[in-house]
Each structure stands twice: as structure tokens, then as C-alpha cells.
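# nightly structure sweep
# worker-07 picked up a monomer target from the shared queue
# config: single-sequence mode, recycle default, output format = C-alpha cells
# input follows
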Amino acid sequence: MKIMEHVIATAGDVSQAGVTGLIPALGSMAGSGPDRPDVLIVSSDPGQADDELRGLGRSLSLAVGRLLPQDADSALERDVFDRHGPDGPTRYSASNVAAPMHTDGMHVPDQSVPEYFSLTCIHQARSGGDLAFVHLRDVLGRLEALGEADRAVRVLSREFWFHTKGVDPKGRDAVRRPVLEDGDGGLVIQYAREYIDLGHAIARAPGLDDEQLAVLELLDHVLADQSSWHERRLGRGDVALIDNRHVLHSRSAFADDPALPPRRMMRLWIQRRGQR
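# output follows
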């Protein structure tokens, strides 16, 4: 996995044009060249005000492409923090529980799956909340070593139902997509096991057959193997831009300090320039 890091002094120009000039990797992420990073982490002065950190996150994201809506109100920004919701299925971005390996935005109808997403760290938790990444290439390599790659690709290229969890302004409860499909430079992925289980539990949805269940269990087993993970804890002022079609990510459970601001990340979904 190609992870690049860059430190930026934010006393100067943090406009979209300004950050593009300072960080050449942003241009490669907006394009389709082979040199673009899988994960780019930009560190800035943690002493800035919250609004300044948000502005930097927006500028970095807009240098890569346009922002995509994230909820039924078509909001382009979503803050990731523990909303202390009721027990039961919830969005990982609204809780403090550990999130298994997944990708973002595959459950929104009528728009493309985000090619990138960004996380801007406004406040970090007292403990936990660490990010981990695994590249699809490493996942497929592990499946190949197990002698299961051909079957997994065949089954995961079939249509699955992903629950929308209320993000569709038209009230639809599911979107149908494959887990694997042909994309930029080969196979790309969109995956979140909970969303698939909830989608196929809808009364009108087909049940998952034995082969689908077996392959999903195998995929989850491979994704849980931490030997292929790349881990990083973002600190205040850090912005991570992540290739959402080739890199799956997870987050450890976290606990906030009641005496300090709670963990909060600003999340943006990004479609590269020139893409639909």
C-alpha cells in the first residue's frame, strides 16, 4: 500500500489552488496515473481553530474532486462522533463502537460510490479511535493463497442488496450493487457486511444463498487478519484522504474524556474530477 504523508504550514494559502501547489500528490489523486497514493495524510498545526481545520479539509478534498451528498438532506459534510443513539443497528459514524473493515457510500442510490473520502481530525478521543487500512490487492492475494480467489471474485461480482439506513431522500430502503466490479485499473470494491445483512433481511429481498454466505464469511475472515493492516491514529489537525474503491478501512472502539471535547472527525465523500 502506498501511504504518503505531508506536513503543511497553514499560515499561508489554504485555498484549493494553494494546497494543490503545495502537495503534488493531490493532482495525482485527481487523475488516474499509477503514481497516486492509496492514502495521503496531511498534518497541520493543531493549534488552529476548528473552522480553520475544516477549511483545510475542504480545500484538500476539493483539490481531488467534487463532493458527494451523504444523507437524505443531501448534506455534503458529515461529522463523525458518538451520538449516543439507541441500541441496535446504527451507522458507524454515529457511534463509538469498533467498525469492521468496510468502504464508504455504497448504500446511497442514484450516485456513484465515492472514489475517495477524507477525514479531518477536529478532536481525537481520550483512547481508541485508531484507523486501519487494507488494500484490495492484499485481500485478493490472501484469497489466492487460500485457493479461493476465483470463487470469491465470481460470487462477489453478483448483485447484493445494501440497506440504505435512511440516507435516501426518496425513502428507498436498499440499493443493489456487486461487492466487486471492474473499475479504474482492475477490480474495485464496495463492502460493509452489516449493510448487506440488513439489506437481504428486507421482506421483499432475496435471501443470501449458501455460497454467498460462505464467501462473505471467508472475506470477513481475511479482512480481520491484522497482518495485512496498516494502522494510523489521526491527531488534531490531520487530514486523511483515502482511496475508497481500493482500500478498506476500520476503526477501533473509542472512549471520550468527559472533561474534553469528544472525538470528532469531518467526513467528506469525493468523486474525482471528470468522473460522473
